[in-house]
Design goal:
MetI-like fold
Length: 274
Amino acid sequence: MWFRFKKSKLSILGLSMILVLLFMAVFADYVAPYPSHAGLHIAFKNAYKPPSLEYILGTDMYGRDVFSRIIFGFRYAFMMIGLVLSLVAPTGVILGLLAGYYRGTVIEAIIVRLSDIFISLPPLVLALSIASILEPNIFNAMMAVSLMWWPWYVKLTYSMTVSLRNEPFILAAESQGASTLHILFKELLPIQLGTILTKVTLDAGWIILIGAAISFVGLGAQPPTPELGTMVSEYSKYLPEYWWMSLGPAAGIILIILAFNLLGDGIRDVFAGE
């Protein structure tokens, strides 16, 4: 598996980018040139400085180093990815397994109909609607993204489970008295892990994009929190004169999305070849 993966240079590039960004996020207090600038640091004498050797990506209207704030923004980005995926992937997968295994029952009807309702609504509109009801902060933005994302894992796992439901190895396990939990998690789930892992990786970029959109309209993290979407929104007021302020966090968002997409493509190729 690793041999097939490492043959893809773009996938290795994506993995390397993620590891570097994750390292920066975890050790932001030590990596950032000016860690105190992540909060409400004010130094008007340094405001609106363009990129230079002292301030790699310039400073903002309060004299804060934009590059340092972006590094802390990576921390919030990975927090959102980790929290959202740790909630939606297990929830969606378990519900999808149950709906597929109990096809033709009330269990399937409830799970599938409920997920269809969520999927029928545009993801961004649904996330914005949920976020508008909650208090604007980073964690409620994560909850909003989670509530609109889980049905996609239900549909994915459900379709694969239905196709495997009457396979000989499943029927053999049932005839030998295997429990439902054994069949779901020992027989059905392992076969689907490759597809699920690919989706998880590719979804990471989308989660960042949706989260940034929520923060951009003021329903996510609030200033002075150095969240990338919030920074783009806050700094966009100063375009085009102070272009570097918005360019940096926007580039950070694109960088994370690109890294996970490259990694996801590599993982998909690995499992497609098995």
